[in-house]
Amino acid sequence: MAKTNETNEVSVVSEVTSAASEVANTAAPAPTFDPETIITSDRFSRYADMLGAVLENREYTVEEVEKLLDKTLSTPIVEVYND
After folding, report:
1. What is the Cα gyration radius of the chain?
2. Which residues in the chain show pLDDT less than 70?
């Protein structure tokens, strides 16, 4: 039966793990888009009117727009009578 070197296998696994974590840490930042591009996109065209009212004049990532949509859509509607 062949003899294996367990410490060598462990060091190779730890090197691969550390290399993978370095690649994950150097990932490119998420792209950002201006409100006009977001509103005219196919992905958010259903919510164009609402996004036009909610988005400020700055750039947003897709994740930020989705969170803003979730927050806006989950806010209850308050109806005021005879104000």
Report:
1. 24
2. 1-26
